[in-house]
Amino acid sequence: MPLLRLLWPVWVAAACSVGGCPVNAPADEGSEVAGEGEGGESGQCPAETQKPLPGAGAVYYGTRDPTHVQLSPSQLRAIVGVGEDPPPSASCSGTLIAPDVVLTAMHCTAGLPATTFYVTYGVNDFDPELIVRAVAKNEHPEYDIAMLRLAYAPSTRIDVEPIPVFGGRLTSADFGEIFEQAGFGQTETGDSDGRHFVAAPFDSFEDGGYLVVNGEGRHGVCFGDSGGPSLRQTVDAGVRVVGALSYGDPSCTGYDRYTRVDLVQEWIEAWAGSIPDGGPVPCGAVGADGSCSANGRVAVFCEADELRRDVCGDDEVCVDDGSTSRCVPVTSAPCGAVTALGACDGDVLSWCDRNELRVRDCAACGGQLCVKVDDAVGFGCVDDNCGGLDFRGACDGDVARWCSDGTLESEDCAAQSSTCGFIDDETGFYCR
Q1: Are 307 and 291 in contact (CB under 8 A)?
Q2: Contact 107/246 with Cβ under 8 angstroms?
Q3: CB-based contact 210:257 (threshold 8 Å)
């Protein structure tokens, strides 16, 4: 799809993000393990004690139908294309959240009259089931989110059901939960091919009113998906819109930023009407065994033909024992408080792999470092490219050099009309 009216700034991932840091190659069969207290060379640690970190360069295409949330055929039509004259192809995406209101991104609507825009319904925006003109727009004064009011409710012409916005508040306890993203943007072929979905874990919050999802180097949203929804399967209200896409990773497989609807609920309700209450949610494809979020904080499962979502307490962790996924006391969990995300104790990495506690001495295994890769991947062993420097660094003349998660960073102080020197124990050496 042509890149029209899209805010997609190049976002450079932090060091050791998806595909950003090399990891130790798997050990050859029969290779010896470094003895206790000995420094092993790269490849001398057994493969079973290597926590895999995601690599780069896979595909970023999605699926025609959602794989995580349960949407009816009429709700599927609520994922819409948003375009400008002439129709029908869409340059942005959106969601019908009320009978005649579509939620999208403000950067998709800014600078043009409301009547410039139209909304397409159906799986293919080039051959839509219905096209409806917008007659008014409401752009948020602070966040990258907007609403379009349509000339009439599309349900009077086709079978379409709005997907309401989320009526609660997202918290860090939700990190690791799977959200489903949707839009009409560019696919891995370089062309637009109608509506697609992709499921990815909720990674973090970010300044500017964003929630961040992580494509894990394998898939994600792309150009033309701006304004499209991030969808959450809730236990009391069915599927709800939690965000509208603002911008994402230029690789279309990394971290994507969605403007949070929970921060602008009153603004939405003032224009689109009250957010409807929910009810029991059918289980759909979720079975009684359920699943745990990567951070071990949430269990989702089916019980009495209703979808359940259990947030673990401070002294609990979600455990999948092969037949059920439930929150259990940390004291009875096979890996204790350690989850699949892992933890570092100095340069010793520990993580939970299928209910078995794994440990890897990163320093002994090729002189690696144990670092936090990111909120979605957790902790891992990465190569030390810093030549012995730590985060405090050192001065090389007027150039400050320091180590950040295994990557050597530097700052030319002279270029800032300053000098390199020691700041304090927490900062180390930097420009002053």
Answers
A1: no
A2: yes
A3: yes
d(CA 229, CA 232): 10
What is the distance of C-alpha 323 from the center of its chain?
Answer: 28
Q: Give every CB contact of residue 360 below 8 A, 6+ residues apart in sequence.
A: 45, 49, 50, 51, 348, 349, 350, 381
Q: What single letter denotes the amino acid at residue 185?
A: G
- CB atoms < 10 A from the CB of 322, how many? 9
What CA–CA distances, in Å, run from 276 to 103, 109, 164, 235?
16, 26, 7, 14
User: Can you list the pairs that 390-399 forms with residues at least 24 positions away whose Cβ atoms lie under 8 Å?
Assistant: 390/428, 391/428, 392/425, 392/427, 392/428, 392/429, 393/428, 393/429, 393/430, 394/429, 395/420, 395/421, 395/429, 396/420
What SS3 state is found at 416? helix
CA 34/CA 118 separation, integer angstroms: 65
Torsion of the alpha carbons at 298, 302, 305 and 310, rounded to the nearest 10: -20
Question: What are the sequence ranges of the domains in the chain?
Answer: 1-19+53-280, 291-332, 337-382, 394-431
- pLDDT-based confidence at residue 237 (cuts at 50, 70, 90): low
Strand 343-345 with 407-412, pairing: unpaired
Sign of the dihedral through C-alpha 347, 353, 355, 360? negative
DSSP state string for 45-56: S-GGG------S
Instruction: Give the pair of three-digit tokens for residue 198.
Output: 């992709």
Let me know: does 83 contact 90? Beta carbons within 8 Å: yes
pLDDT digits (tens, 9 = 90+) for 178-199: 899 998 877 766 667 788 888 8
Residues 6 or more apart in contact with residue 35 via CB below 8 angstroms:
none
Report how far residue 61's alpha carbon sits from residue 414's, in angstroms, rounded to the nearest whole number.
46
In sequence order, which ranges of 212-335 are alpha helices (DSSP H)?
265-272
pTM of this prediction? 0.60
Rounded to the nearest 5 degrees, what angle is found at the Cα of 290, between the Cα atoms of 78 and 261? 35
DSSP H or E run through 401: strand 399-404
Question: Which CATH fold would you assign to the domain 1-19+53-280?
Answer: Thrombin, subunit H (2.40.10)
How many Cβ atoms are within 10 Å of 277's Cβ, its own excluded?
Answer: 9
- Report which of residues 70 and 16 the model is more confident about: 70
State how far the Cα of 194 lies from the Cα of 119, in Å rounded to an integer. Answer: 13
